[in-house]
Every structure is written in C-alpha cells, then in structure tokens.
C-alpha cells in the first residue's frame, strides 16, 4: 500500500509582484503543500486567480474572511510591508502557522510586539525566511568561513544591486516598504549574522559587531527623495 505524506493546507495572502510568483509555485511545484486559498484586495485579483490557479483554490478579497473560512492551517503573507504585522498577529490569534515576507515591520516597537505575540504562541510556527541562506553561493561562502579557509573574519562588506525599473513601481513601492535600507538592508544584516554565526558566539568574545556603516545615493530615481529613500546603497560592519 502506497502512502502519501499529508499536505499542509496553506492560504496565500497577497497576489502582487512576488505573490503571483509564489501562488504558482505553491499550486504547481510543492507536492507537500495544498494551496487552498488566495487572497488580495486589489480589483482584478479574482480574475487573475481564476485564470492562473487550479479551480480548487478559493479566492478571497478580504484577509479576515480568508483566514477564517478557507480551511487553511497556515498562511503565507506576501503583502505590502505596512500590512505584515497586523496580518501576522491576526493569523496567530486564529491559531494559524505563519510565514511572512520580510521585514516584519518598518519600526522596532511594532516588530517587538509581533515577536512577543509569536513567543506567546509556542505551539504555532512563525517564520520570516531569508532566501540568501538557501542560495548555493552563500552556502559555499559560509563553508569557507566555518572551515577557516578565510582566516579570522574582521569585517563583512555587502553591496546590493537591482535592475532598472522604467515602470515606476520602484518609486511607488518605496512609499510603504520602509525604503531600501529597511526593505533590502535586512538581507545584509541577516547574511552578516549567518556568516558570523553570532548566536553561537565568537572564538574571541571581544570580536562582536561594534560598528555598522551604510551609504547610499539618488542617482537615477530622483522621486525617491520625497520618501527619504535612496537608489544605491552599500554597507559594512
């Protein structure tokens, strides 16, 4: 008798730029996941879901309705940054496991409130995944650090680039994303911690992260100035 692993029932909230990609992955490329629902408040999202997802996937235009009535055991939150925290907290209150796009929030106080909510529900899984930890090139670099091939690490320097975007999305997204340092800088912070493995301590206990430097400029998209954002950045610590 052939037995099949139980599939986790997931609802996806957010069918935007990345949400649409994730919807297809969950629906067609993850044999241990059953996408039971997709949700987005934007007009036309229901039509997109009907045309691109299996008919078994229910569409909801309201996140509250989706979390209460989709039959999901877990939610994947892929919405605008400002909505992450309230959706995470609501899902946890409803007894749902949560995976959310980063960052949790654009401010520390709200982020700590979400962390406290997750800690108060230890029976539920809460994950903010950082994709670079699963990239082969970053894992190869991590191995070089761990086996001592690079010697003792004194500094980590990162640079991040993105494609030019003539559509204007790059600028409008900045209005609610927290800007390039919050929205993308969290990747650099995380990968620095990943390479240094700060949770396990340093060989030399005095070698802690003691300084972080970040720089950026507005070189092409001058409209970013009204959001206090930048186009290019680099950081070291």
TrEMBL record:
Coiled-coil annotated residue ranges, if any: none
Residues annotated as domain GFO/IDH/MocA-like oxidoreductase: 138-197
GO biological process: NADPH regeneration
InterPro entries: Gfo/Idh/MocA-like_OxRdtase_N (IPR000683), GFO_IDH_MocA-like_dom (IPR055170), NAD(P)-bd_dom_sf (IPR036291)
Gene Ontology CC: cytoplasm
Gene Ontology molecular functions: nucleotide binding; oxidoreductase activity
Gfo/Idh/MocA-like oxidoreductase N-terminal domain ranges (all copies): 8-119
Family matches, as Gene3D superfamilies: Dihydrodipicolinate Reductase, domain 2, NAD(P)-binding Rossmann-like Domain
Protein family (similarity comment): Belongs to the Gfo/Idh/MocA family.
UniProt protein name: Oxidoreductase
Organism, scientific name: Cladophialophora psammophila CBS 110553
């Amino acid at each position: 008798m052939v037995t099949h692993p139980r599939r986790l029932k997931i609802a996806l909230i957010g069918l935007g730029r990345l949400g649409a990609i994730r919807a297809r992955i969950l629906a067609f490329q993850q044999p241990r996941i059953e996408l039971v629902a997709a949700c987005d408040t934007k007009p036309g999202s229901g039509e997109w879901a009907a045309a691109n997802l299996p008919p078994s996937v229910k569409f909801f235009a309201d996140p509250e309705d989706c979390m209460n009535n989709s039959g999901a055991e877990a939610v994947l939150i892929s919405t605008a940054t400002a909505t992450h925290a309230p959706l995470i907290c609501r899902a946890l209150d409803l007894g749902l496991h949560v995976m959310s796009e980063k960052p949790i929030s654009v401010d520390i106080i709200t982020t700590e409130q979400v962390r406290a909510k997750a800690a108060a529900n230890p029976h539920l899984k809460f994950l903010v995944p950082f994709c670079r930890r699963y990239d082969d090139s970053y894992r190869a670099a991590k191995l070089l650090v761990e086996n001592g091939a690079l010697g003792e690490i004194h500094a980590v320097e990162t640079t991040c680039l993105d494609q030019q975007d003539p559509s204007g999305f790059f600028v409008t997204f900045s209005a609610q994303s927290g800007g390039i340092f919050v929205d993308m800088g969290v990747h650099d912070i995380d990968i620095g911690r990943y390479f240094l493995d700060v949770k396990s301590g340093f060989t030399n206990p005095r070698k802690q992260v003691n300084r972080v430097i970040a720089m950026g400029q507005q070189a092409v998209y001058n409209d970013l100035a009204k959001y206090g954002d930048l186009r290019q950045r680099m950081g070291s610590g």
